[in-house]
Amino acid sequence: MTQTAIRLDESWREALQTEFDAPYMKALREFLVAEKKAGKVIFPKGSDIFRALDLTPLGSVKVVILGQDPYHGDGQAMGLCFSVRRGVRIPPSLVNIYKEMQDDLGIPPARHGDLTHWAKQGVLLLNSVLTVERGRAASHQGKGWERFTDAVIARVNDQATPVVFLLWGAYAQRKASFVDTTRHLVLKGPHPSPFSAHNGFFGGHYFSKANAFLEEHGLKPIDWRLPEDPAED
Predict the structure, then answer these.
(1) By the number of CB atoms within 10 A of the CB, which of 23, 61, 120, 200 ranks highest?
(2) How many CA atoms lie within 13 A of 23 on its CB side?
(3) Alpha-helical segments (H) within 57-203
(4) Whole-angstrom distance, CA of residue 202 vs CA of residue 101
């Protein structure tokens, strides 16, 4: 995970330089190198680790959606929380996100799980932990990623332009508890997982509320529809 090898928008590279230079990030890089040398498979691939920050420049962030860990199954993780590449089975949590979006906005569920179209419009799809070992959920928690992504959220919080934070589940709500609600809109709900979605996730109208807030502040709303053709992302 050398800085010359990663794909990262320059706005984030500049904003997070002190984090990249910090000892904890050096230790994190050494941990990842050692894991790979030990024959362990790490997801997502190296060029996609910072994909959320590469597709959504700091000054373009309109909405933040927080996840926890990358998917740990083969072919799933792509560097955007809740998102999988076209051709990969849509994960249950994303199925429920699509259901809520259809109820809220009347948008039929997409036939794929690639959320790149959102990211390119200013939806920062940020996991708290950016890597995982294949087949071992939460295996890279406590290695430094949480501190790094706390810094990412802090940089967004410091932006003058109002931002919408969609915080689904207790973990996301704790992580972004410091967000300034006098400037930004924080929408909370249960996690969309099948284990918790029926406890209040459905009916939250997160997408329409987010767009209404953006429009109230003179910002272009998000087109939440996901095109079938990747060329339209």
Answers:
(1) 61
(2) 0
(3) 92-105, 116-119, 145-157, 170-175
(4) 9
pLDDT for position 6: 72
Tell me the pLDDT tens digit for each residue of 46-104.
Answer: 999 999 999 999 999 999 999 999 999 999 999 999 999 999 999 999 999 999 999 99
Q: From the candidates 54, 69, 104, 114, give the one annotated as an active-site residue.
A: 69
How crowded is residue 150: how many other Cβ atoms within 10 Å of its Cβ?
Answer: 15
Give SS3 for 176: coil
Amino acid (one-letter) located at 67: G
Name residue, tokens 């320059």. 10
CA dihedral 220, 224, 227, 230 (to 10 degrees): 70
φ and ψ of 166, to 5 deg: -100, 105
Contact criterion met (CB below 8 Å) for 145 and 131: yes
% of the chain at pLDDT higher than 70: 98
pLDDT digits (tens, 9 = 90+) for 121-136: 999 999 999 999 999 9
The backbone torsions φ and ψ at residue 84, rounded to the nearest 5 degrees and listed phi first, read -135, 160
Give the mean pLDDT of the chain: 96
C-alpha closest to that of 65 among 51, 78, 52: 52
What is the model's pTM? Answer: 0.96
* Burial class of 35 by CB neighbour count within 10 A (0 to 12, 13 to 18, 19+): middle
| 115 touches 222 (CB < 8 A) | no
Structure tokens at 133: 């070992």
Per-residue tokens: 165: 């934070």
Q: Which residues pair with 67 in a beta bridge?
A: 127
